[in-house]
Structures are given as C-alpha cells and as structure tokens.
Amino acid sequence: MQDTVTSNRIAADWIAADWGTSNLRLWAIGPGGEILAERSAPEGMGTLAPDQFEPALLRLAEDLLAPDRVTPVLICGMAGAKQGWIEAPYARVPCPPASGAPVTAPTADPRISVRILPGLSQSGPADVMRGEETQIAGFLADEPEFDGTLCLPGTHTKWVRIAGGEVRGFRTAMTGELFALIGRQSVLRHSLSPDGETDETAFAEALRHGFAEPAALSLDLFSIRPASLLDGLAPAAASGRLSGLLIGLELAGARDFWQGRDVVVVGTPGLTARYIAALEQLGGRARAAANPELARSGLVAAYRVLQG
Amino acid sequence: MQDTVTSNRIAADWIAADWGTSNLRLWAIGPGGEILAERSAPEGMGTLAPDQFEPALLRLAEDLLAPDRVTPVLICGMAGAKQGWIEAPYARVPCPPASGAPVTAPTADPRISVRILPGLSQSGPADVMRGEETQIAGFLADEPEFDGTLCLPGTHTKWVRIAGGEVRGFRTAMTGELFALIGRQSVLRHSLSPDGETDETAFAEALRHGFAEPAALSLDLFSIRPASLLDGLAPAAASGRLSGLLIGLELAGARDFWQGRDVVVVGTPGLTARYIAALEQLGGRARAAANPELARSGLVAAYRVLQG
Questions:
Q1: Are A261 and A149 in contact (CB under 8 A)?
Q2: Cα(B206)–Cα(A57) distance, rounded to whole angstroms?
Q3: Looking at this predicted complex, what is its ipTM?
Q4: What is the pTM of this model?
Q5: What's the rounded Cα separation, in Å, for the pair A287 and A266?
Q6: Average pLDDT of chain B?
Q7: Which residue of B has its CA nearest to A231?
Q8: Which of A158, A183, A299, B23 has its CA 20 to 30 Å from the CA of residue A9?
Q9: Whose CA is closest to A98, among A61, A138, A149?
Q10: pLDDT (0 to 100) of residue B290
C-alpha cells in the first residue's frame, strides 16, 4: 500500500538525512520525491556513541515511519566516520561524488533499514570529506556538465575541482575554524566587534594584503591588536581585517582552484556572499549555486541510483 | 643604616619585579646589586584589578621590606598596561630599550615606592611590547655594541632590530598563541602528541615547506588530520608538522629581520633551541643569549640609570 498519509500521520516513502558533527537534519520523502516533512536536532556525531545513533534517529523520525513496512533511511555525513554509527570507507578521487557503495548500519528496530554514504578521500596531498560529496552530487544533478570549481566555505572550506561528472581533486582550508579560534580566544578578541559586524573597506584592504603577502600572516594578525590600542582601529574594522587576512591567505593557497575557472560557491548566504565578493575583488569569477538545498538533492539523486 | 639582614630577616635595598599577564616574579636586591631572594606567584595582570596590585605585591614581598625606610620597587611588564596597575605610556622607537620615564604607581603602604617602566611602541606597522624592552636592556648591558636582531620567542614572538644601543624597529608574530589554540582546540588536536613530543624530521620538513609555501598554510594545516586518518601519521610527527608549518611561516614573514644578520634568541631553553635550529636550517646564523636572566639584568640596569 502506497498511501503516505493515514489518519493525519505522515508516513515517509523513505527518509533522507544529513548527519554532521553537530546536527542531524532529515527529510521525509514521498513516493513522488516530494518533501513531506523536514526536521532537525542538535544531536551530531560529536556527541553520540555508536549505539546512540539509532535512538537519536527514532526520537526525531519515529512518527514519520509507516507501521507495516520497512522505511529506508539514507544518510550522508559524519555518521559514517570511524567514530560515527558505522564507518563507511572513503571512495578515492577521481570518481563521481556519490559513487561509493553505501554501508548498512546495524539497527534493532524492524521498521527501518539504514544505509550511510561514504565520503571521499585523496592521497597526495591527503585530504578527506564527508557530507560535502553529497552536496556535490546534488549540484551535479542540476548541472551535470559543469566544468570548474565548487567552493564550500564553512568551518573547513572545501575547494573541489569538477569535470566530466567527477571530482578530480580537492583541498580543505581550515579558515573558518581559525577565524573562530582567533576571534574568540586569542589576544585579538579584545579588539574585535562583539556582534560580528564587519567593515567592508577594512575587509577588502586586508584581503588584498593577505593575498599578496601570505608570509606576513602571523605578524599581520598580531598587528590588529596594536592598531586598536594605538590608532583606535574600530572593532568592525578589526573584524574585517581578521576575516580579510584569513580569506586572502586561503585564496592565495587555493589559487589553482579558481584562477581562470568558473567557481560556484555553496554555503550559508553570508559566507557565500563574502567568498563571491572576495573572489571577484581578486579577479576571479564566481556565482552562488541556484539551489541551496544541495545535501537533500544529493541524497535524492543517490537514492535514485541505488533504486536502479 | 645599610644592614640588609636583621634577626634572620632579609631586607632588600630595592625590589626588581617582572609583572606579566600571568605571573609576578620579583627579586630582592642588596646594596651591592646581589640577589638576596627570588619569588614568584601566579598573580598576573590578567587577573588583577588596579587596586589589587599593591596587595598582591605585599603578599609576595612584605617580609623583604625594611621596617624603617622606604624600599623602592621597579617593575617592568604588563603591570604598566592600560588594564594594569597604572598605565606607563609607551616610548616610541627608535629609542634605547629602557629610555622612557617610569611612572609612579599609587600606593597606600608607606614602606614602598613603586615605579613602572614603560613599554615600546611603533607606528607603521603598529606594534607594541611591554616587558621585552627590559630584557633587551639587560642584553645590551652585556653586549652594548650588538648590531643585529633579537628574537624573543613565546606566546607572542618579538623580532627586534638593534643597532647603536637602540631598538630600531620590531614586529610581533602570534605563532605561539596560534600553536596553542590550534593544537589544543582545533580538529587537529585528535592527531597530535598529547605530551608535546615532536618528531624532528617532520618538524624540519614542515619548516622548509611552510617557509617556501606560506600561502598554503590554511590547506597544509588541515592536511595534518587526513594524513593521520589515512596514512597513519604518528602523533609526534603531526606535532612536528604543526610546529614546523607555523615557525616556517613566521620565518618567511620575518625574513628581513634575520637574513644576513646576527640573531640572538632569548627564551625558554626548549623554544630557544627550536628557533636556533630552525634559523640554521634555513641558512641563518643564530645563538642563545649568554645570560638567560635578562629581565632581571634589565631592571638592574634601568635602576642604575634612575639612581643617576
């Protein structure tokens, strides 16, 4: 029986889930691919032992399950890490972004059947991703012919070369994590804007400087403090300078990924706008992805492939 | 009366104190310049309100005071910062390292008379130091003709150009603070040696790489994590790589301070050895200061000048 709604209850045809380090986000998908419900909970891989994943999933999704059949659940992200629910070994690039075989997770509840998509790895230089490969698959579902670079800014920003429907190579920059650690805990925290307000002129100047003089980073970072003490550098300008120096450094290091290539940026609206502006200021060309729900699109695309 | 010892009590002729962000360290000095006692306490500027400095000083030094005369106390370091006991305005370089007029701190106890030495500031690029200028004065008391660079590695490493008995210019790198934040709190902490053990070969390789490719820092830092996950990079090698990348970056940025110049490194034994080895690996020439107690020597030299 394919009725998806019985006495006001939603019964998912299947469930798509993006399970990261900090959050679980899931969607109940109907038989025609329509989204019946969307849920999230702050129960990420970082706080769960392996045997706590199934209960966390059921807490969030139990009322979405049909009582009389098995509901498939397809998961991407850190739930497949070594410290996660069960390890889904990496697929090695170059390869299509969601080509690796999913791993079946152990479950006790007979109403669910759970599979986890593998991440991607690269050797020389060593690099890994988990979750972003599914966003990439979602992007390629919309633009299968894309030849260029995807930039996924965040705590760990991914730079990904795409051609021929494959991930050809990628690197990760820890810019977002550095920004958070330095901004909240270093001596510079006294000089920065407490609400994250950013002076765009200061950002643009520091971006160009960080890009042109990456070797001076450690000196230029400290210099924000005396500029505030001695010259009255405003907090919003100090925050702009910190962000500009770190993104300028990243764009210098990731130059081969974006110079002379089409770049699509996939992230939160604020970060996406900042990276696009930064790339354009340095002579690159960049745009945002048309569809921001790429993890969900990628899970839907991967599920279709698995169904044959 | 100049007796310094009465009924087994030490009475200092004067007291020298190095009062930093985290610690207070002081010496009771006799009339001939001899050290009668040395004390320290974890009562730094970072945890004291202005009116708590005098009580903290008395807790540590009261039994060193003569009952029947005023004991001068000369202080260097963060006690003279805006958030300290009383602000001792910066002297601006180029100038001799301890040439600024000390500021008298407000005190209630009639047995002490407290003065705080100013730090140094620089404009274009903006930079500041408090405490290191007194170590530099101590160094110049031993080597007044030195023409070269002092490197004072630590949380905030100072690179200082010295010539003609003056500080000609300086820059600060936040390498030590970055190392601590990234090593203890970023995603890399899972890969590093818990006891700080460092593989010297990995350090040397990363040093050369960080020096040659500073733009790649944000990418190369992250890469430590997948190298550990995928290739089994040992914790001591991961710690060496983190340290090497950050010091390599610093030495690239501070190149004008050390290439073709004599460098003297002043710091804890471990850091001093590491910076000397790093400079030599990159073709520099460096040595440790002969006298490691430079703050005390500098306070003694400054006290002599103040006494005329």
A1: yes
A2: 43
A3: 0.91
A4: 0.92
A5: 9
A6: 94
A7: B126
A8: A299
A9: A138
A10: 87
Distances (CA, A) of B252 to A233, B19, B183, B265: 26, 32, 21, 17
Bond preceding residue A94 cis, omega within 30 of 0: yes
Q: Do A218 and B82 touch (CB under 8 A)?
A: no
Within chain A, strands assigned E span 5-6, 9-10, 14-19, 24-29, 35-41, 71-77, 91-92, 103-104, 112-116, 120-122, 127-129, 148-152, 157-163, 166-173, 262-265, 285-288
Q: How far is CA A293 from CA A267, A269, B33, in A?
A: 10, 12, 73
Using CA coordinates, name the residue in chain A closest to B215. A253
> Does CATH number 3.30.420.40 belong to domain A1-118?
no
Residues of chain A positioned with their CB less than 8 A from the CB of B218: 173-175, 178, 246, 249-250, 253
Which CATH number applies to B1-122?
3.30.420.300
Decide which of A201 and B6 is more confident. Answer: A201
Tokens at B201, concatenated: 């070969």
Domain ranges across chain B: 1-122, 131-308
Closest CA to A125 of B71, B63, B245, B164: B245
Q: CB distance A121–B253 less than 8 Å?
A: no
Instruction: Please tell us whether the domain made up of B131-308 is placed in CATH 3.30.420.310.
Output: yes
CB atoms A125 and B223 under 8 Å: yes
Contacts of A47 (CB under 8 A, 6+ apart): none
Residues of A in contact with B174 (CB under 8 A): 186-187, 218, 221-222
Tokens of A98: 């969601």
Instruction: List beta partners, residue B14.
Output: B29
Q: Take residue A124 and report the two structure tokens written for it.
A: 């020389």
| Tokens found for residue A113 | 């059947």
